[in-house]
Design brief:
Strand order of the largest sheet: 1-2-5-6-7-8-9-10
Oligomer: single chain
Distance between the termini: 49 Å
Structural class: alpha/beta
Length: about 290
């Protein structure tokens, strides 16, 4: 694939991001763009996710970076082009990439994880996507694992210079508290290592969202919307409180739906959740 084609693809993705950013929230607050995880759509690693996200009314998709053999699928320019073309045809943005495989291949003890993160940084550089979700669940859980934290800090320090040069953020998602996460960020010492905040993770860990979000502040790169009990507005998540905390830190990025309860079926449930979020986060200036 020639340099001109790669340049066009990168420009296309950036253009869609700029269009969506300009569209934003009515009124005086920072704009919120609504994305959805491709795995929530049942389309992990598939370009078909963009068509379904568009149909449901989302602004973009969080795309899974999947391994194929020793490397990530998107290292192949042809396969990467299929995703960018699918996004372009539907007017959808790639909100961020996610390396969910790290829950089974942990950064703390498997060298493949660091190699794949390095590849992911290059993929972001070539596509214009700015955020990589780096999860720490399952086998990668860091709770009560000081040795695992030390190993991850060391790996992130090695990766951070390349991420900084590429203008890419490695966004850590876990069950750890804001206090614990800030200690990790301070030890790594790079603006390219930040937090992927998930409201339901904090709730499940018994943490106070109204404290956690302001404490993390500008070190939050992106946020997952989630309710593990029911449809949004009917379950246990207080989204008006979430909105207030997000406004407190001036957050104006992606709010990515990671639905775990789909009682009406996939499409009706996600439409319901998105419509509910819009009533909370896209109010007019008079309602603010």
């Amino acid at each position: 694939m020639g340099k001109a084609r790669r340049g066009f693809q990168r420009f296309a993705v950036l253009l869609f991001c700029l269009i969506l950013t300009a569209d934003g929230v009515a009124g005086s607050g920072p704009s919120i763009k609504f994305g959805v995880c491709d795995w929530t759509l049942g389309k992990s690693g598939s370009p078909e996710a963009f068509a379904l996200a568009k149909k449901l009314g989302f602004d973009g998709v969080q795309v899974s970076l999947l391994p194929q053999g020793d490397s990530l699928v998107f290292v192949d320019n042809t396969k990467r082009a299929a995703f960018l073309d699918a996004a372009g045809k539907r007017g959808q943005a790639i909100a961020s990439f996610a390396l969910g495989i790290l829950n089974d291949v942990p950064l703390k003890n498997d060298p493949r994880a660091e190699r794949w993160l390095g590849e992911a940084i290059g993929i972001c550089r070539d596509t214009g996507v700015k955020v990589i979700l780096v999860p720490f669940f399952g086998k990668g859980d860091l709770r009560n694992d000081s040795a695992g934290v030390d190993a991850c800090v060391a790996a992130l320090r090695r990766l951070a210079p390349n991420a900084e040069r590429a203008g890419v953020v490695l966004a850590l998602e876990s069950y750890l508290s804001a206090d614990e996460l800030l200690k990790i960020l301070d030890r790594v010492g790079s603006p390219s290592v930040q937090i992927y905040y998930d409201v339901a993770n904090s709730q499940a860990a018994g943490l106070d969202i109204a404290r956690e979000i302001p404490l993390l502040g500008k070190r939050i790169a992106e946020i997952h919307a989630k309710d593990t009990k029911d449809l949004y507005g009917k379950g246990s998540m207080d989204f008006p409180l979430v909105r207030k905390a997000m406004e407190e830190i001036g957050y104006g990025g992606w709010f990515v739906v990671e639905g775990t309860k789909l009682p009406l079926g996939l499409e009706p449930s996600l439409r319901y959740d998105l419509d509910y979020l819009k009533t909370i986060f896209r109010k007019s200036e008079e309602d603010r």
